[in-house]
Design brief:
globular; membrane; ABC/ECF_trnsptr_transmembrane; transmembrane; 2 domains; about 200 residues; mainly alpha
Length: about 200
């Protein structure tokens, strides 16, 4: 199974997962509390510089954020039509900063580290009997690992359409993508149960 983690020796790689996740949380509070397009632009450019400093490569860097970038552009355009240019810039820079920061954290943090930190964060909930902390961490880790798998399957379906000279549409794309994803999810669930990893029955 693919992973979004990229090996490296950058400062961000050397920081603990807890520090990065706390930093990402504080950054989200900052950008959503700020309404200045200029300040948000500076934050977005800084996040872009950090992301590009990871030496992932221009092509891979773009492929990782392509879908989210297009979504942000669409949202910003809707904001421009419905509100004002200033609001559109604010939305664009705010979402771009969050996307780039999250991409940088994901690229420099292993899935195992994510699981450990989420499990530790959910521990108080387990103490009061609401959830199993290990199950929460495992669930988050699987979501992170599934993202590149879903993207890979979408690309394979798209290439199959092009090879057959077929046009892409929602049904012919979504149906096989959902079937393949659910099939893989069943296989992973069976493997997890076979190893008795999940704590909840």
């Amino acid at each position: 199974m693919r992973t979004l983690y990229v090996e490296g020796g950058s400062v961000l790689h050397r920081l603990s997962a807890r520090v990065k996740l706390i930093g990402l949380f504080l950054l989200s509070l900052l950008v959503f509390a700020t309404h200045s397009p200029v300040l948000l632009g500076i934050v977005a450019v800084t996040c872009a510089a950090v992301y590009l400093s990871l030496n992932i490569g221009w092509r891979q860097s773009w492929l990782r954020i392509r879908v989210f970038s297009l979504t942000i552009v669409v949202v910003a355009l809707f904001t421009l039509v419905l509100e004002s240019p200033a609001a559109a810039l604010e939305t664009f820079f705010r979402l771009s900063a969050m996307m780039l920061a999250a991409a940088a954290v994901t690229a420099t943090t292993t899935t195992g580290d994510f699981i450990d930190q989420i499990t530790a964060a959910a521990w108080p909930l387990e103490r009061i009997g609401l959830v199993k902390a290990a199950d929460i961490g495992l669930g988050v880790g699987l979501v992170i690992r599934f993202v590149p798998e879903v993207v890979m399957r979408y690309q394979a379906i798209r290439d199959a359409h092009y090879a057959r000279g077929l046009k892409m549409n929602v049904i012919s794309t979504a149906v096989p993508l959902i079937i393949l994803t659910l099939r893989n999810a069943d296989e992973i669930a069976a493997a997890i149960d076979a190893r008795s990893i999940r704590g909840q029955k």
